[in-house]
Amino acid sequence: MLPQWRKISDYFRSLFPGREKTLVILYTTDVHGFIYPYDYVLGRDTPWGLARLATRIAAYRKRYSEVLLLDNGDFLQGSPLTYYYNFLQNRGSHPIARVMNALKYDAASVGNHDIEQGPGVYNRIRRQFRFPWLSANAKIGHKRSYFQPYTIREFGDVRIAILGLTTPAIPLWLNPELYPGIHWQDMVSAARGWLPYLKESQRADVIIGLFHAGIHPNAHRPDWPKGIPEENPCLQIAEEMPGYDVILAAHEHRVYNSHPLKGEPDNPRRSLVMMAGSHGRHLGVVFLKLKRKKNSWRVVDKWGKIESVHHESPHPAIMELMRPYHQRIMHYINSRIGYARHTISSRYSRLKDGGFVNLIHQTQFRFSRAEISLAASFTTTYVLKKGPIRIRDVYGLYRYENYLYVVILTGQQLIDHLEWSAQYFTTVDPQNPLARPLINTDFMGFNYDMAEGISYEIDITRPVGERIQNARFGATGEPLDLQRSFRVAVNSYRAQQLRKRFRCPIIWKSNKEIRDLIVEYIKEKREIWDKTTPNWKLVPEWIVEKYIRERLERDFSAIRDE
Ligand SMILES: [Zn+2]
User: Fold this and answer.
1) Among residues of the chain, what percentage have pLDDT more than 70?
2) Domain ranges within the chain, ordered by starting residue
3) How far is the CA of 372 from the centre of ligand 1 (A)?
């Protein structure tokens, strides 16, 4: 039956050549180095990764003739593979470029974590890409963009413009040395400025926003620093500028699709907004139905779906290409650097002072001349097992590429920062302590700092701003002098936040990343113990104990900061 029917429909189509077209857009985002389906930190296979997505991509290309493949940034950071080939082995071709070239991407956008790797890395990989890498709002002066701003793809006589934008909140997180000379223009004005140019001068029939930014706005929050544009304006742009047929979002690692259905009457007039998760778990698929009107093409319908690729078999050609890189990383990640005398778990690392965060503090004290150290726990799942410590454990413990900085804070600023940080906890009613989750899921766990070098309590029954109690300076045991200045060790990400908030001076920077310093510290000490002398605690303690016993595990499943 089917071949017969095909013939008939082909016949009718031949009577009206090129009046109608279906264009398929495939998109990946926030892959963070997850290509080979293996988690180097946990040491096990993963049911996701770009190699599995590649199989699905190939299937779409087989089924449809007009397929556009896009990536929305943040592929250069996040796994030992990217770290190794960004910094330790920086000659020859980069595996990310090789894989993305092999998959024949049509374009990609620049993500904040790609910039975080520094110009040495992103300029090197840019030269290896065989597709344009886009960001229209990374401005040099008023007119020029540091990266290519847009690209045009043609399918027959259909012209598709793809505009790349990057979240402009980068100065909040990254040291300006990572983007020398670049000024991050507000995305909303950039999107508005480019639209008529793409439509009229470039005669684009379809306009796609490839925006490395999210959909949940932040800039209205009271603690958002002045002068930093909105981090996540994708929905605002969609609302104000329906000229963007499709807006592909990123950055938040979530799944979102505004147009799940085919044939909704107002579909073509509203922008389709999609966010396709992270780490090669999902493939975003957008269908555009186009009709020819005189000399141009119009989108008459659009819809999309986000496909999970769990357990899709990895693409053999990508696996083959990746194999030598994979073997290299396996060797690197398993090299032994020391010995753990205890098992040190991160499970309660944000609720009780313990050995996990202490290892970061001790490293920060060892390599800086700070009096006080601030550190966050980046995980609540990693367990450093008793026995040999390998490089991979340090990735499990410390997942980000941060440098060690020393800033000057007054006692008052330190307290203000700890109060801000303590927003990680909701306010507890002692009459009914388990009524609500203790952990505030709106506040990212990696922003919750714990201090060493002072002692203090966090009273979780009091409102934000009045929680830090009994702060004392560790060296003297005296109450913390609010007027005095202290040398405080922090990571480079936090230093940017503190500088925006307090304009505090940065007086020292390490030339190695904190993760490398931890490796050095462990090598030097040879053996690591779980630390037992707490200098801070959440009070009342009985509530915390009860919470850990009776509710914590349930709440952990709602936390999405990893
Ligand atoms: Zn990301």
Assistant:
1) 96
2) 18-328, 338-556
3) 31
